[in-house]
Amino acid sequence: MERESFEDQEVADYLNQHFIAIKVDREERPDIDQIYMDACMAMTGQGGWPLTLILTPQGKPFFAGTYFPKTRKYGHMGLVDLLPRIVEVWINERGKAESIGEQLTNALRDARQKEVRDQSPDSSFFTDLYENLASSFDESEGGFGEAPKFPSPQNLLFLLRYHAKNHHEQALSMVLRTLEKMHRGGIYDHIGGGFSRYSTDPKWLVPHFEKMLYDNALLTHAFLDAYHVTQDPVWEGIARHILDYVLRDMCDDDGAFFAAEDADSEGEEGKFYLFSVTDIQSILGDDAKSFIRYFGMTEKGNFEGKNILHLQTITNQEWHDWVLKSSVASHHMTEMVKKVFTNREERVHPFKDDKVLLGWNGLMISALAKAARLTGENHYLGAAIRANDFLNKHLRGSDGRYYSRYRDGEVKHLAFLDDYAYFAWAKLELYETTMEISYLQQAVKLAKAMEQLFCDQDRGGYFLSGLDAETLITRSKSWYEGALPSGNSVATYVLAKLAMLTGQEDIIAARDRQIYAGYGEARKHPSGYAFYAMALQLVLWPTKEVVIATKDKNQEDPWVTAIQRKFLPQMSLLHRSLDEESTINEIAPFTIGQNPLNGEPAAYVCENFACHTPVTSWRELENLL
Predict the structure, then answer these.
(1) CA distance 263 to 352
(2) Domain spans of the chain, in order of start
(3) Can you list the alpha helix ranges (DSSP code H) found in 112-249?
(4) CATH classification code of 124-263+353-540
(5) Are the C-beta atoms of 236 and 223 separated by less than 8 Å?
(6) Residue 170: how many CA atoms within 13 Å on its side-chain side?
(7) What is the pTM of this model?
(8) What CATH superfamily classification does 2-111 receive?
(9) What is the per-residue pLDDT across 157-166, written as a single tens digit (0 to 9) for each?
(10) 559 close to 601: Cβ distance less than 8 angstroms
(11) pLDDT tens for each residue of 375-400
């Protein structure tokens, strides 16, 4: 639409003469995007991007749609036909247009009052969600639903927890098949690493080549959790490959992470990533034949005469060997891929969206912290801490209020709910990896800021924008999870984890309000609320709160590492040391008196805040876990 319409001189001249044209980056202003997407859905019954609205001077929408070419084609009205009609209506029937805008604005405001809140959460929700996912699961190719196929990592994270609780092998199988098929497909960049946004076909072969920071962060979580559950190093290997790409290509010199890489280069989608057989022969010479077979290349190609590289035709053993670099053949293939990568680097690269978004950086920090915990690789933790420090330095105002976007030294937009929720999740992962109490303190501070800035005091749940934000026609609130889990879902998960870690009554109360506020909508459409379900699991399923008490915070304690090796999503782990006693007492008062025994480390295991007798041996602790 940009190429066909906005860059066309005739369309631009007409727009500039009759309208005030405003282009919104929905990543920078999700509050605006959410309000007007709701308006488009209300007016047309469908939405999507590009999103096109015409507003009154007061910002009230009276016309909405999505894609409009310059002239009519494929059943879509052209802008050169639409815009004069809008001008005619505005001149001759302005009252009608303003009335539509007023009615729609009131409807958007009234929608909040119709939120369902009269249902008590129960565990049948998890069964319904599982069955919804199972009914849409593609047994052959993995993933859910029909093309276009999105990775939807939160579905996979939920299924792994469902499997862990219920020993449900089909839930695990759905996850592992999806992860394998995605990695084998063209949606994964086998030369440079990283996943594209989605696949246009059912087999994950032909992607929309845009790479998003958030997809790669959440997919890293999914692969790491799969490794945590199965202990199969292939899943760890893929997570490492993703992070190698991010740290190489999506990280700035100061440690923050860029938002995205475009699909296009030189005006063509995917051009940077495509190869012909002749290209590979010129790069690899005599080695080309095995490379061409391995990556499924043909003379005809599989995308506009060239090849999207994929691993869909090699054997399972070859795939495992390639991921783990565990055979002579895979080592040889690695050297060939390096040559192809070096050659590809000389091409014109896709445009890099180098803005730094607080929330998306929070997602990547959380993934890196988890990677450090599960792999033992300190450079992942170092990268997570650098990014965390960058955000605290550059995106936090002198009053403590966070901002959403940083680029070239410029900070803009008061941070939104998603920013706070994702960043709070990052603090929790940093705490679980380092056991540094400062990260837990920061998570609590962010959670309480969410309550202060975003809470809907009347209906529960959190608004997308803060009390101090720009005044728009309404304050939007969303629970539904699309490519990203909603800020409300992640906030609920953060509160549920913090309730276990701290036992603070105001955090428990905020968690419960969130659970009840979201449950009505989630109950109606379970498959759109997988991350919310993970929070609900921490409330409805049995939990364990584990406190490891030592004399000082640096005292060697192998128990923490041993516990972290186990996939125990219903468990919280707190490290309590006597040299930080006053801080721990304040942040987690339920631990007061839980001290080392006779100077030796002791473990206190509580189930829903009812605590067992402390133990001093790993065998006793493992039995309680």
Answers:
(1) 10
(2) 2-111, 124-263+353-540, 271-349, 544-624
(3) 124-136, 153-166, 169-184, 213-230, 233-249
(4) 1.50.10.10
(5) yes
(6) 9
(7) 0.92
(8) Glutaredoxin (3.40.30.10)
(9) 999 999 999 9
(10) yes
(11) 999 999 999 999 999 999 999 999 99
